[in-house]
Amino acid sequence: MTTITPFLWYDDQAEQAATYYTDLFADSRVDSVARTPDGTALVVEFTLLGQPYRAMNGGPGHPHTDAVSFQVDVDTQDELDRVWDALLADGGRPLACGWLHDRWGLAWQVTPSMLGDLMTGGGDPEANARVFAAMRDMVKLDIPALQAASAGR
């Protein structure tokens, strides 16, 4: 069977990153670690929320960019806050509109699962404009504020 697996390049912390991500999300685990003869992790296979990933310690020169990011959809503000804070811990950097870089420079979007519905506003272009305007002013997304914007409050 043909499959596609996201493959992430780290300077030298692939195993630490994979362990951190698998501790953060339920239904996640480190599946295997291929090591060099001296015991250093080379390729780490892991699963996040049922999706397989691979990470490699490839050395410097290939930093992560915003051209590839991972979107985490959450149902509640508490879950959004938990994931957001965890991904920012120990050196992450908030960006805008729900985007951030974690401590390894990987780009993430932490978004409400209902964002698409809020943006379409049931086909109401004014609701769309209100939600879009509210979101543009946010760094970490605020679900109640987005819901209020969609409803015109």
From TrEMBL:
TM spans (from-to): none
Pfam families according to UniProt: 3-dmu-9_3-mt
UniProt domain PhnB-like: residue ranges: 3-111
Matching InterPro entries: 3_dmu_93_MTrfase (IPR009725), Glyas_Bleomycin-R_OHBP_Dase (IPR029068), PhnB-like (IPR028973)
Protein known as: VOC family protein
Organism: Curtobacterium caseinilyticum
